[in-house]
Amino acid sequence: MKRTSDALLENFQVADATPLSDNGNANGTAGGDGGGDGSNAARPTSSNGNKKRNKLIKSCGFCRRRKLRCDQQKPMCSTCISRNLVDCQYAEEFNKSVEKKAIYGTFSNVELLKKIDDLENKIRTLENNRNTNSPTNFVCSSSNFSLLNSTTCGGSTESPDPLPNGVINPYADRYYVQCKHSGRSIIYGPTSMRTQISSTNWGFIAKYKQLWTKVKVERNIWKKNNQKTMCRELCLLKESSWEPGPLLEQICKFLPTYEKIFSIIDHVFDDEVINEFNIILDKTKITKDYIDYFMPGKEALPNGERPIVYILSNSKNNYYKAAVILMILCLRYFYGNIPAPLEKLLIFLNGTSTEKVFYIERAQMLILLFYHRELHSFGGDGSHLLNINESLFATVTTLGLHLDIRKIFKGEEQSMGSLESLENIWFMAILIDYTMSSHIGKPLMINKFYLDETQEYCVLNDESKTYEGKLKRYLKMARSMLFALYDREKFPDLKLFSKQLTSFVEEELGPLGHYTDENLAVEVPLKETRIICMALGLILSFYALVHSMLKVRTFESKNNTFQLVLINFSIIVNTTIRCFLIDKERYPECFKPSYPHLPPTMAMSMGLRAGLFSKTLVFFCSLIFFKLTLFENGICLSNDMECGWSDLTSITVPLDKDLSMGTAMKLYTEISDRLFNAGDKLLVRTMHNSPQFIIELAIERTSRTILGNVLEFRKMTEETWLSQIRQELDPLPTELRSEQEQHHQHHAPLNREASLPQEPGSPAPPSAPSTDPTTVPSQGDDKNPTKSQSEIIQMLTDEFWTNYNLGWEELINQSEFSTMFNDIEGSTAEPKGW
């Protein structure tokens, strides 16, 4: 069905088209071109032959072209800040003399000048350091982002420029540095969520940070009321001892009875559904260590059970044997509320520096500690697990677990545990190392020296059809991709890697529809959700890198990106609901109002999702924000907002199909809202027992609020403009015009425009009439009856950002954001404009 706007615009001719950046400014710049004083430019000559003196221009390029008052503040003037522009440039920033028109003209060459300056700087660097490569730096403070020696996600849809001389792999040095005002700093690499977000769309991140600042106030109140903090370990320094006496005696005051601990240990080995970690333990050895090192009291309690009165060690002070059992209690008894004395013991055992600590139990304790923090602690980006991974790497390689275990440790089963459990400890160390590399974006610590896949004893050489066999084959494939990603001597083919990962999912993990269909999800082995989330998360990382680094913005890439994020959302929501239903059936006592923790299976779901939620959500929302604030691919979004084809049974979209933005947004909303509708609100109430779930719900609402705001004002701008051109182009009375519109809507076929350019060699997307208005009659101007497309686009851009910024200020000034955390009913109302 052809819309009225299409009928009005069909006769327009393309003329004077100038692409826009992601902030809607002409000339392809990212939010306003720079300016300069032009003092070194060629001076014009007056009619009498005397040279005219150039006036020193101090305004920025954007204000100069728009004839706006510029306060000349640096790095950005107030005008550019109010319009949310990325750049505010002055000619003095450039290293060479430039003509004023190159900066302040209608069609500036700022981007070209930037590239010239960039190339000159690289040449100087290469001349000074002939044997070194200059990395691409991405530096960010807690208050703003700055990208050095690179361009962000702008409006260019052309093929990428050739790489600079000496740069073979542009991904290897792609990173983001988070610098807090306190002085704390963390670096994140190319596969990290933070790096992908910071390089995808600066405009969205600026709005997100602005709104999140308001939400953070309420989050801090929630954390204080619920006594949740990421600084728990450091805060223990301020706490006095619970009572005089050794630390081990203090711990005993909080332990369950001797008999209760026995039943917990049995449950860990009997219930494999919720206990992934039991493969690293030998039940016979654990039981013996418990009997040897945990001393019960002589007097029984009224219920007939005995309390624990002391914890022993061997003659070499190996407290790690007891620590393994204490970590089992943390996972299956204390959950997120570890007693302070016990936490002090774990900190001490983790941080000891003597060589007398390299026991197999230390490796087991670190794996269980990692698993506990993954399920019950803050830290969606994984940074709170870095130290554990590094300690684990040092421990397992010092123990020699990277060698032939069945040969070296044969006959040592009594002190070390079964050979199978030793192999599983090494395997879990490999898995944790991969997880941290994927989350943080750091090279793998367990490199090819420690894990030689050509050796017959390599633990990853497993062809079984079990969950462990599939996971090992995935790690074997994905690790090679991460090695290539950080190899500066080779250019990694991320598109090929994505296809290989897609093939693995389709061949190894069964029909994708069983994961995305809420009614079929129960047919999938629950543990295998971890593998598919890891695979889809890595594909998303590759998509984001290609999008931001190579500027690949094709019709095919747009479809596949939207498809992938919708699949991710569907799997995440289905897994959460499925685990909730399992717990509701098996552990009904965990849903009492007084129960303060997540039920066991829901807690396990935090690890199964592999940090996929935040990475998918913010990347998706930044892409939608990019498209909604971009006017280069057609003025009107009406076609792309129509709901059409959708099928989440395949990772890639068929070349003859179009997954429109409207369809993507509609499905995203429907999928996310299922969380609030499941279990008669009981699911959301239960999720409020988890700090990580709370943050995810707040991030989802924050992101959706931003998109709802920008979509509302995009529609408002288009409707205002269309109503104006209807009056100017259509002289018919209102009644006749209404009849004509109904006739067009009844007879016109349904078409949708391709929202992104077509990649060379790919099939053409479905055809659609152009919605790019290029000429509009100008009222009161007989000499110039038309306006160019660039002028119309600029007019619409100005009106959009004016309305949007005013509406945004109104939103930010709202005093109430507490519903982000306290509204456990989970409102499913859509923000304005959805």
Automatic annotation (TrEMBL):
InterPro entries annotated for this entry?
Yeast_MDR_Regulatory, Zn2-C6_fun-type_DNA-bd_sf, Zn2Cys6_DnaBD
Q: Which intervals carry biased composition (Gly residues)?
A: 29-38
Domain Zn(2)-C6 fungal-type span(s) in chain numbering:
59-90
User: Domain of life here?
Assistant: Eukaryota
Q: Where is the composition biased (Low complexity)?
A: 769-778
Tell me the segments the record calls region Disordered: 18-53, 736-789
Question: Mind telling me which PROSITE patterns this protein's record contains?
Answer: ZN2_CY6_FUNGAL_1, ZN2_CY6_FUNGAL_2
Q: What is this protein called?
A: Zn(2)-C6 fungal-type domain-containing protein
Q: What is the lineage of its organism?
A: Eukaryota, Fungi, Dikarya, Ascomycota, Saccharomycotina
Gene name per UniProt: U6500H02070
